[in-house]
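Possible regression after last week's pipeline update?

I re-ran a chain I had predicted before the update to compare outputs. Posting the input and the new output here so someone can diff against the archived version. Not blocking, just want to make sure nothing changed silently.
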Amino acid sequence: MSDALDWNAKTIAEFRANQGMVGGVFEGAPIVLLHHRGRKSGREYVNPTMYLPHDTESDIIYVFATKGGAPTNPDWYCNLTAVGDGTVERGTETYTVTVRELTGADRDRIYAEQARRYPGFAEYQRHTAGVRTIPVLELRQA
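New output (post-update):
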């Protein structure tokens, strides 16, 4: 098992054992488990990721396809946007979501707020400057 898959598996197990809370680099951060189907394989995948809750609508969260500042988008982003929906585990709740990619000023505003709260996101943006714009997805409970 690759280091990334092993890390994901451990984070997922910890999330589920602790009602959505994890330690380590994610300690105290809002985390969801994103369920998505491979756009080619049809296989189900689960990825832990940080999210930003909407200011006033509890059925909307935002996720960020940072891939740790890598030059390419993560597979989960490609899968979610290709299909247009997925499933989220948030705390002890699991629900279906619709996916909408934010663009322009909306994208920039949401990403800036995440980077203000979690400075690592500003660093990811510096790493990808001139290479790609990190996508922001709005996930709305269906």
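Follow-up from reviewer: compared with the archived run. The radius of gyration is 14 Å. Marking as no regression found.
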